[in-house]
């Protein structure tokens, strides 16, 4: 692709978000701390700069909820949200030490020991899903495998019946779309309706589980206390549930689907993985590096500061672009290439770092390991079905996931 005039670059446009990698490389070469024209916003694309920022909450705060929750110019949207609960800062947009208060409430659910104990259940879910279409010649893999696998897992952890999968997916999509800030007016209205519906559904569950504890996340949030022994408010609990719901399925769905496409597009690497299944953990890290389903995150400068020689005024917003850092050639030689045995793949930034390191990182890794292992063991000769795979992604500033994935395959006898 030809280089663009940075003064004319609309970085957050749907067109750039769909095909961003040449822009990432140009910014890394020419302006690694690039200020968006006529805005107090900086885009950060080099690995070491991103790492410095996300590990320094004193200078670069995660308290950017004002940016995410800016009221819509559409009064119908605002009126719909008024029927729900206010959005409050809990996990994503809190800084230490307050962030730790909320995170401690759910740490045990996502501990490495507990996640490893779930592996058998995740393998069973993967097997049951594949059983439904293994005798066919092709499958809508996105909707019949990549979507339901992580949703079933997170629904079990939340304490929601698996029969509610369509609702959970709808609510998660709406939350992700709102977070991504690229929805048109019609989509904003639908997002608002879906999010308020989600809030009332889970508010009712919180009421049901208060005083009637069960072994799930909602019960923990409904009954555990913080501060001086008070229960979480409903807006606090709902905010945490919403973030866990999105992080617990959207990113895993995107990683599984994206990983399959990468292996189809790189048949030599797929062969290597089939011949050396012990490389599955390494391959998962490499897929997470290349796919980076959470492409970036916001930070806010708490003081006048400098990064890599660029002055950043207090109050500026920084878009730390994990997806760009994960292809930084100075850290990952041949950064755009898939190498299932890459030595340093696990140095990627797909889960962030520091205090906000992804709560569900181990769950996502396990789901991706199980999903790819099951697909590789039971199917072969993968191909993209002609005419059904535009390989486009849902428009979103922060998240990246395919809109379609139809594959042909042979059943392994």
Features:
413 residues; 2 domains; Cytochrome p450; alpha+beta; 17 helices; Uridine Diphospho-n-acetylenolpyruvylglucosamine Reductase, domain 2; three-stranded antiparallel sheet; 12 strands
In words, what does this structure look like?
- With 413 residues, the protein is α+β, with helices and mostly antiparallel strands.
- It folds into two domains: 1-61 and 295-349, Uridine Diphospho-n-acetylenolpyruvylglucosamine Reductase, domain 2, CATH 3.30.43.20; 71-270 and 356-411, Cytochrome p450, CATH 1.10.630.10.
- It contains 17 helices and twelve strands.
- It has helices spanning 14-18, 21-30, 47-54, 65-68, 75-81, 98-106, 112-131, 141-146, 148-158, 165-180, 185-209, 217-223, 234-265, 267-275, 280-291, 322-325, 361-378, and strands at 33-35, 41-44, 60-61, 138-140, 225-226, 230-231, 297-301, 305-307, 310-312, 317-320, 379-384, 406-411.
- The strands form four sheets. Strands 1-2-10-7-3 form a five-stranded mixed beta sheet, with helices on one face.
- α13 (234-265) packs across α15.
- It is globular and about 60 Å long.
Q: How many discrete structural domains?
A: 2
Instruction: Identify low-pLDDT runs.
Output: none
Identify the CATH homologous superfamily of the largest domain.
Answer: Cytochrome P450
Give the terminus-to-terminus CA distance.
Answer: 44 Å
What does this entry show, briefly?
The protein has 413 residues and is of the alpha+beta class.
């Amino acid at each position: 692709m030809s280089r663009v005039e940075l003064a004319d670059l609309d970085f957050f446009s749907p067109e750039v978000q769909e095909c961003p990698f040449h822009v990432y490389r140009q910014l890394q070469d020419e302006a690694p701390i690039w200020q968006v024209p006529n805005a107090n916003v900086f885009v950060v694309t080099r690995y070491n700069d991103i790492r410095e920022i996300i590990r320094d909450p004193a200078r670069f705060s995660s308290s950017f909820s004002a940016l995410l929750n800016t009221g819509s110019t559409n009064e119908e949207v605002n009126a719909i949200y008024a029927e729900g609960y206010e959005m409050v800062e809990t996990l994503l947009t809190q800084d230490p030490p307050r962030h730790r208060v909320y995170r401690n409430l759910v740490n045990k659910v996502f501990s490495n020991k507990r996640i490893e104990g779930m592996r058998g259940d995740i393998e069973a879910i993967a097997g049951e899903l594949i059983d439904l279409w293994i005798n066919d010649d092709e499958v809508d893999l996105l909707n019949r495998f990549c979507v339901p696998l992580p949703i079933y897992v997170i629904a079990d952890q939340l304490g929601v019946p698996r029969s509610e999968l369509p609702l959970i997916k709808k609510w998660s999509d709406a939350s992700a779309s709102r977070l991504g800030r690229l929805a048109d007016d019609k989509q904003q209205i639908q997002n608002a309706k879906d999010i308020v519906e989600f809030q009332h559904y889970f508010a009712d569950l919180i009421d049901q589980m208060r005083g009637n504890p069960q072994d799930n996340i909602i019960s923990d949030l409904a009954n555990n206390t913080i501060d001086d022994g008070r229960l979480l408010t409903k807006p606090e609990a709902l905010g945490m549930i919403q973030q866990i719901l999105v992080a617990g399925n959207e990113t895993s769905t995107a990683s599984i689907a994206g990983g399959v496409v990468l292996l189809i597009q790189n048949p030599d690497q797929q062969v290597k993985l089939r011949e050396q299944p012990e490389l599955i953990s390494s391959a998962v890290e490499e897929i997470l590096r290349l796919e980076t389903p959470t492409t970036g995150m916001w930070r806010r400068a708490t003081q006048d500061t400098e990064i890599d020689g660029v002055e950043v005024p207090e109050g500026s917003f920084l878009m730390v672009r994990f997806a760009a850092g994960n292809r930084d050639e100075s850290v990952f030689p041949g950064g755009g290439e898939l190498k299932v045995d890459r030595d340093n793949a696990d140095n990627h930034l797909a889960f962030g770092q520091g205090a906000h390191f992804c709560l569900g990182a181990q769950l996502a890794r396990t789901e991706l390991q199980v999903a790819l292992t099951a697909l590789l063991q039971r199917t072969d000769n993968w191909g993209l079905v002609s005419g059904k795979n535009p390989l486009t992604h849902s428009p979103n500033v922060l998240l990246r996931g395919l809109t379609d994935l139809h594959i042909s395959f042979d059943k392994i006898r």
